[in-house]
Amino acid sequence: MNSTSDRLFRIIAIFIILYSTLVLITTVYTTIQTYFNLDNPLIPEYLVYYSLFPLVFIIPIFGFSIWFSWKSLYSTNANKVIILILLGICIFHFTFPDLVYDFIHKFNPYGT
Fold it and tell me: Are 92 and 25 in contact (CB under 8 A)?
């Protein structure tokens, strides 16, 4: 491929790194806030785990996105198909975050 295409995929990889880092920071902050700010004795303990269940999938996906995009920035021949798939995941999560969480909550073992 030519240098213009490589430059474009490097910009896409930087975008993936920035967005995935933002998602990971917000999910870790939400996790800490949810877990440690639950002082009401009337709220059952399993509701904390119900709200934290989607993070089991969100954190590894975006962690892999950061790792792979960072690795592709420093390699001479990055796998452009995986970068485009990660870009699609980031755009879908940015556009429809509620659909992502609702889909994950369908498989939540702590739900009713």
Answer: no
